[in-house]
Amino acid sequence: MSKAIYILAIESSCDDTSAAVLKDTEVLSNLIANQQVHELYGGVVPELASRAHQKNIIPVVQQAVAKAGIQLRDLRAIAFTSGPGLLGSLLVGGAFAKSMALALDIPLISVHHMRAHILAHFIKHPQQEPPTFPFLCLTVSGGHTQIVKVSDYHQFEIIGQTIDDAAGEAFDKLAKMLNLPYPGGPEIDRLAKLGNPSAFEFAKPNIPNLDFSFSGLKTSFLYFLQKEMRQDPNFITENINDICASAQKAIVSILVSKLKKAAQTTGIQSIATAGGVSANSELRQQLQALCRQNGYTLHLPAFEFTTDNAAMIGIAAHYQFLAQDFAPLTTPIEARKEVKV
């Protein structure tokens, strides 16, 4: 029987400091230290984020190892997010991972953040089965919106992506216009459940192929609010639920229509979604409806693995370990790291 592969994974691409220990595809621990300071600014402040990572990373790693019930000598590799993300935040996690791998004399594994979101589907989970290859994955987060064709654990092809803003960023920007607290996406989702999604109409972009655009929707939304507020200063307060429901419907419909087109174009009938926005209730409902109507197979990630977390870095690292895909200590941090096919 082969020896179990224990991997310590570190994720620090944005404002959450996370560490996880995986035994093969099983998560033994997955801890996240959130940074509440950014709520004061309505968005992530990069300098504050990197300082908080420096403060949090040692206790988070210590607790992850302790909760996993292992010793450092049991680890077979150290994995970290090398990009994309905020440069300062990535540097903290990367430097720590490199130092630890060097001290323990074990391999270092460099993980692409967006690949990890997709591969989170392969974490051992009692209620979920992983997708079969090939499959299409709609990856939606604060920084990315992509449709990715996944042929195996190591082969990813972006067949559609946003040409401007990401869907998660659009949610947060619309929420800011409505004076909702940060992060705005979950707040819009909460209020939308109380509103009428057909109350208002917003401009939808006509972007060719499988690419997305959300800048026009944001502009349409802003002009709509300005017009209504001139007529009624209390418009937002009196209609907040309907506004959120209608805005959410507009964003989700853009995502789902492009994914449907991708499935028809490629002939692939196995569908998945990943990233922070994949927790959105309306998106999940519309994806379920899409797959039910067309006979597709849908794979939704477990809620605990939708937002940035180290477990997803660990599962990606597991398959890289099996492929002996190790990284030198000189591996660079790449804030705008692209997915290579």
Elements, N to C (H/E): EEEHEHEHEEEHHHHEHEH
* Sheet with most strands: strand arrangement: 3-2-1-4-5
- Which word captures the global form? globular
Number of separate structural domains: 2
- The N- and C-terminal alpha carbons lie at a distance of 33 Å
| Derived structural class | alpha/beta
* Biggest sheet overview: 5 strands, mixed
User: What is the C-level CATH assignment of the largest domain?
Assistant: Alpha Beta
Number of strands: 10
CATH fold type of the largest domain: Nucleotidyltransferase, domain 5
Helix content: 40-55%
How many H/I helices? 9
Mean pLDDT: 94
User: In percent, how much strand structure appears in the residues?
Assistant: 15-25%
Which architecture of the largest domain would the CATH scheme give at its second level?
Answer: 2-Layer Sandwich
User: How large is the radius of gyration?
Assistant: 20 Å
